[in-house]
Design a protein that fits this description.
Tetramer of two alpha and two beta subunits. Belongs to the class-II aminoacyl-tRNA synthetase family. Phe-tRNA synthetase alpha subunit type 1 subfamily. With 339 residues, this protein is α+β, with helices and mostly antiparallel strands. The chain is 42% helix and 20% strand. The chain has a 7-stranded mixed beta sheet with strand order 1-5-6-10-9-8-7, with helices on both faces. The protein has a 3-stranded antiparallel beta sheet with strand order 2-4-3. It starts with a helix and ends in a 7-residue tail after the last helix. It binds phenylalanine. The site of phenylalanine (PHE) has 11 residues, from strand 9 and strand 10.
């Protein structure tokens, strides 16, 4: 009988299983309530006295072997299940991550920020929901000033007037109120105007406005800065400044860059003139400085503002401004190779 037990021990030791069911069958066969161990334990009383000790030891050894086997196999199968089920095959190659593309507006905005940061301009931001003071009054546009009509405004609330900013000049006002000259800052951001939506204009768009204030800042400094910008941005250094009007600058000008007339696209873009209007600018009106707590007798400065959307349309030859806000991935994916 002891030999039979030893055989069973060897069998139990050699046992392997592929599934939990097999382990369970093994457990029932050896350790179950009608299992082999039960049978052999029942035999104990029939064993001759001098063999009892060896028999007892052997049967206990069988019990331990079977129990250890069941536990070890269960554990191994469970961890295998975890690998395959919960986590999958941990050694398989990862899923490729699809890279997105930057939005053309962000690409152009980042280029502009980069160009101005190289000559010491920092970036300032402000709220899109503005009060009348920061969007109009402080900028030399008092109530009932006719130039307020230059920018059709979305009002959120009247008395006091709360509105969606029509330009990021409002950020410049906030910056001047909070910082002492010298000031060199550009303010990128989204602006809103109550205009009919078409291929050429939208009720919201994006601007970058710049502000430079220090002692003895002159119109020549403005022109030099603009020329640096157009050279870096478009690779074109020929610009012209056409007299214009903005309430917050005096004198004011419209900036045109000479694009050239080399290709048919140049003709189309510039309507056959070779010149492209890219921004407004001027010397900050002394009233604006005083409104913002900067002494206009001591300091002077210049400001400029440009539309990012328009520049993105130009640079990428996009024919409809609405494409910029439709978020059609087929359109956006075309900018993967850009910055
Ligand atoms: N704020 C003007 C606009 O939105 C642009 C501008 C800024 C013009 C600074 C002159 C100086 O049209």
């Amino acid at each position: 009988m002891i030999d039979k037990l030893k055989e069973l021990i060897a069998e139990a030791e050699a046992f392997t299983a592929q599934s939990k069911e097999e382990v369970e069958q093994f457990r029932i066969k050896y350790l179950g309530s009608k299992g082999l161990l039960k049978e052999y334990f029942a035999e104990f009383k029939n064993v001759a006295n001098e063999q009892k000790k060896e028999f007892g030891q052997t049967i206990n050894q069988l019990k331990k072997t079977a129990e250890d086997k069941v536990n070890a196999l269960k554990e191994a199968l469970e961890s295998l299940e975890e690998d395959n089920g919960l986590y999958g095959d941990l050694s398989r190659p990862g899923e490729p991550i699809a890279l997105g593309a930057r939005h053309p507006i962000s690409i152009v905005k980042n280029q502009i920020i980069d160009i101005f940061s190289r000559i010491g301009f920092n970036v300032s931001e402000g709220p899109e929901i503005e009060d009348d003071w920061h969007n109009f009054t402080a900028l030399n546009l008092p109530e009932y000033h006719p130039a307020r009509d230059m920018q059709d405004t979305f009002f959120i609330q009247t008395d006091p007037d709360i509105l969606l900013r029509t330009h990021t000049s409002s950020v410049q006002v906030r910056y001047m109120e909070e910082n002492k000259p010298p000031i060199r800052t550009i303010s990128p951001g989204r602006v809103y105007r109550n205009e009919a939506i078409s291929a050429r204009s939208h009720c919201f768009f994006h601007q970058v406005e710049g502000l430079y204030i220090d002692k003895d800042v002159s119109f020549a400094d403005l022109k030099q800065t603009l020329q640096y910008f157009t050279t870096e941005m478009f690779g074109k250094s020929k610009i012209r400044l056409r007299p214009s009007y903005f309430p917050f600058t005096e004198p004011s000008a419209e900036v045109d860059v000479y694009w050239g007339l080399e290709t048919e696209t140049d003709y189309k873009m510039t309507k056959g003139t070779g010149w492209l209007e890219i921004m407004g600018c001027g010397m900050v009106d002394p009233n604006v400085l005083d409104n913002c707590g900067i002494d206009s007798k001591e300091y002077s400065g210049f400001a400029f503002g440009m539309g990012i959307d328009r520049i993105a349309l130009l640079l990428h030859q996009i024919s409809d401004i609405r494409l910029l806000s439709e978020n059609d991935v087929r359109f956006l994916e075309q900018f993967k190779s850009a910055l």
